[in-house]
Write a structure and sequence with these properties.
By secondary structure, this protein is α/β, with parallel strands linked by helices. The chain has one domain: Glycerol-3-phosphate (1)-acyltransferase (3-Layer(aba) Sandwich), CATH 3.40.1130.10. Helices cover 43% and strands 16% of the residues. Strands 3, 4, 5, 6, 7, 8, 9 and 10 form an eight-stranded mixed β-sheet that branches.
């Protein structure tokens, strides 16, 4: 089985540039954490969160600004296509990297459903918790029931929720089967479902160096991405999927099909 390092297609020249990227990005990331993170935390204070900043609340503006800056500090150029639906909406996306949440946050502050392990990740987990992430313990039926209840509540209160129906990150080479059960929450809340296609790479191709390598930890992936070459981070907001009562599997399959088509993978 190949390692994460074996999957890179960087030339020797680009490999030689890795120390320079760390030299430039490392201090900038540190400054972002030291100075910008406290501002983001202040913005989440209930007393300040609702202060208007243009068309957004202060907390929404700060979450999107902080997240977008974080993605760019890793050398990604954010490319956004389409428009996220306003109000209560369930966004369903393919899952490539831990950066997916930050990339989507850069476009709109969203309450995500994520695996419980993320809560323990340095920095990212802490910020995700403060931003209202709904954690799910994978493999637990009781946990899923609780998660679905919280998703319905968030949607009914007018808030957007982000879901990764594959159930975990993949290699980025394909979009795996979408689990259909979570789509019931959108039906119960009478909220629209909008598929979102995510990709990291150049020239419309997924770079194999972005996803987790076999057995790779969050810390190792974090450091590896920090030294990678610059590339695009694409987020495609697609046409919403019509609600189909009593047929959540059909909604899941249609959402996946639209994402597959947007990424140019073809049906697999």
């Amino acid at each position: 089985m190949s390692s994460a390092a074996d999957r890179t297609d960087e030339s020797p020249l680009r490999d030689a540039m890795r120390p320079l990227r760390y030299l430039v990005r490392g201090p900038l990331l540190t400054l972002h954490v030291i100075f910008a993170l406290p501002l983001a935390v202040i913005a989440l204070n209930p007393l300040l969160a609702k202060i208007p900043v243009g068309n957004l609340r202060f907390d929404q503006f700060m979450i999107s600004w902080w997240s977008g800056t974080l993605v760019r500090l890793f050398g990604f150029r954010i490319r956004s296509f389409g428009t996220p639906l306003p109000g209560a909406v369930m966004y369903v996306a393919n899952h490539v990297s831990w950066l997916d949440i930050e990339l989507m946050h850069s476009q709109r502050a969203i309450n995500f459903v994520a695996k419980s392990e993320i809560a323990r990740w340095p920095l990212v987990g802490w910020l995700a918790t403060r931003a209202g992430t709904i954690y799910h313990q994978r493999g637990s039926t009781d946990s899923m029931a609780t998660v679905m209840g919280r998703v319905v509540t968030r949607l009914r209160s007018g808030g957007p929720v982000g879901i990764f129906p594959e159930g975990g990150t993949g290699s980025g080479k394909q979009v795996r089967t979408f689990h259909a059960r979570i789509f019931q929450a959108a039906l119960d809340a009478e909220a629209p479902v909008q598929p979102v296609a995510l990709r990291y790479g150049l020239d419309g191709k997924q770079d194999p160096c972005v996803p987790f390598g076999p057995g790779e930890s969050f810390a190792a992936n974090f450091l590896r991405l920090l030294g990678n070459r610059s590339m695009d981070a694409e987020v495609h907001f697609l046409e919403p999927v019509d609600a189909t009562p009593e047929a959540r599997r059909r909604m899941a399959e249609e959402s996946r099909a639209r994402i597959v088509n947007a990424l140019g993978y073809g049906e697999r």
